[in-house]
Amino acid sequence: MSFKVEAEISQFGGKLYKLSHESTSTNTKMDVNVYVPGSSPKTKIPVLLYLSGLTCTPNNATEKSFLQYFAGKYGFAVVFPDTSPRGANIEGEDDSWDFGTGAGFYVDATEDKWSKNYNMYSYVHKELLTELEKHFSALDFSNISITGHSMGGYGALAGFFKNPGQYKSVSAFAPISNPSSCPWGEKNFGNYLGSDKSKWEEYDPSHLIKKYAGANQPDILIHQGAADPFYFRDHQLQPENLVAAAKDSNYKGKVLLNVVEGYDHSYFFISSFVEDHAKHHIKYLGLSE
Amino acid sequence: MSFKVEAEISQFGGKLYKLSHESTSTNTKMDVNVYVPGSSPKTKIPVLLYLSGLTCTPNNATEKSFLQYFAGKYGFAVVFPDTSPRGANIEGEDDSWDFGTGAGFYVDATEDKWSKNYNMYSYVHKELLTELEKHFSALDFSNISITGHSMGGYGALAGFFKNPGQYKSVSAFAPISNPSSCPWGEKNFGNYLGSDKSKWEEYDPSHLIKKYAGANQPDILIHQGAADPFYFRDHQLQPENLVAAAKDSNYKGKVLLNVVEGYDHSYFFISSFVEDHAKHHIKYLGLSE
Q1: pLDDT of B1 over the 70 cut
Q2: Nearest-angstrom CA–CA distance, B68 and A244
Q3: Is residue A162 scored above 70 in pLDDT?
Q4: Which residues of A touch B (CB under 8 A)?
Q5: From the CA of A26, how many Å to the nearest CA of chain B?
Q6: CATH second-level architecture of A4-285?
Q7: Which ranges of B111-204 does DSSP label H, i.e. alpha helix?
């Protein structure tokens, strides 16, 4: 379905578009923000897909990540999808902050209750990009990389491993690295996918990396704040599990895990390291500093 | 009064402090955010005072301006004060979004109803800086510049002209440049200062520049979005009036007014030009790119 332009805003020499459309994956209206730089060294503009974390709309990262500054500087576009269907009217979808609305967990739900709407995996990696390609002819959706934060960091890693060849590179900020074995993953996978844990592993980066057989095996950049309570206290994130899984796999790229002292889980953490992630991705997107 | 540290957050290699204190100027508790860079080329760290616009708390600019990126890069601190007393319990203070709470208008109120609390001029330019100097011994409050947005842009310009020698340089984003003759200024000056318009001129940049006699006469950098409805539709901002007043004055610095096509009044506009403003101020603060 075509997009409705809700707002067109100038920023950093380019344009930020706030769009909405009716999704056939989620059967709801979905919002998405797209930043298009004012210019790019490439004839068609490369794209970075940024997946947000629990509770976020497309606006949080758009307002607070400052990714657009580097997108404008280096010449790539950024796509900020929403994190779940909204207003699906499913009983229980608004009962907790870390499940349901704002927490689509980037899976295609198989449990009856959720399977009509909660299909954020197909939405983000297939429908949304296909539709955006029709809308933005200046953007090159065959030259795209992926990143994300927390739930979105997991979503970026899973999306990369599950779609060999689709993304040139992947990085993540404080990703839920081994969701099959943490409380957030157990809650969301259990509800959306059911109790068969082998189904969970099909979305778990720390399992997927072991069976990844794509030709494209770029280095994977990860930042994790050492003062992030979801990391050191709650063990929701476990990036070390991904590092260990990578060692136990044939994946040729390095997992570049940076545990940064003093940083928390917030957008102040994200904004502090988007420059590193932008510089990481442009190498793979054919851009330069 | 000493500050209570409400939060200490890592960002861009430095620390963001969310502070509160009891103000003797406003007779209320006041919040203020201070960003301290991780390092600076100067032994004592220069300071930029950022005054926010109508409705804002210290958090809006802290989260959305992107100023801390350049503060961290060049080595200066940033002070983000609040825009009014809050909870003063004055009848009518919460009746409109552009007067009272969130709209202190950086004056010392003389009308009885407001004069006990609405003293943001003395608070921002005197009390707050004096108290912060005691708290942050690494910061150099004798090497300070000032900027701001909208009401805060006016506040920065007025504060610069009214305190010769206090600020090394001044800039503004979409400032209310001639508040004596626009609806926002008339409403706020009228309520806080009374009906004698000669009192209003004591805070009006387009009047103050004509009688400024300070030795320090730096260039004044201003950005104004051409698509800002408060500019082109409502005539609240009128930066051309300041340019005209400067021509009609002995002020030696240039008023560098940049009317930028397509930009609005939002933080997307501010964040797009904080780099230019940071580069403007560091010249006067003894820092370099």
Answers
A1: no
A2: 35
A3: yes
A4: 9-13, 16, 63-64, 66, 69, 225, 227, 260-264, 266-269, 271-272
A5: 30
A6: 3-Layer(aba) Sandwich (3.40)
A7: 112-115, 120-122, 128-135, 151-162, 183-193, 197-201
The answer to whether A218 touches A170, Cβ cutoff 8 Å, is yes
pLDDT above 90 coverage of chain A, percent: 99
Instruction: Render A241-289 in DSSP notation, one character per residue.
Output: HHHHHHHTS---S-EEEEEETT--SSHHHHHHHHHHHHHHHHHHHT---
Nearest-by-Cβ selection for B64 from A9, A63, A272: A63
Which tokens hold the place of B112?
Answer: 């009885």
Task: Give the relative orientation of helices B67-74 and B267-285 as an angle to the nearest 10 degrees.
Answer: 20
Residue with tokens 């926002």: B184
Structure confidence by residue, pLDDT tens digits, B17-50: 999 999 999 999 999 999 999 999 999 999 999 9
The reported pLDDT for the residue numbered A1 is 60
Assess contact for B18 and B33: CB atoms under 8 A.
yes
Exposed, middle or buried by CB within 10 Å (0-12, 13-18, 19+), for B135?
middle
Active site residue B150: yes
- In this prediction the ipTM stands at 0.96
Average pLDDT of A230-242? 98
In chain A, what are the domain boundaries?
4-285
Q: Helix or strand or coil: residue A48?
A: strand
Which residues, including other chains, have CB under 8 Å from residue A41's CB and lie 6 or more apart?
A75, A287, A288
Give tens-digit pLDDT for A99-123: 999 999 999 999 999 999 999 999 9
Interface with B, mutate which of A9, A10, A264 (most B CBs under 10 A): A10
- Distance, CA of A139 to CA of A159 (rounded, Å): 20
Residues listed for chain A: 289
- Residue B141 CA: distances (Å) to CA of B153, B164, B166, B280: 20, 15, 9, 18
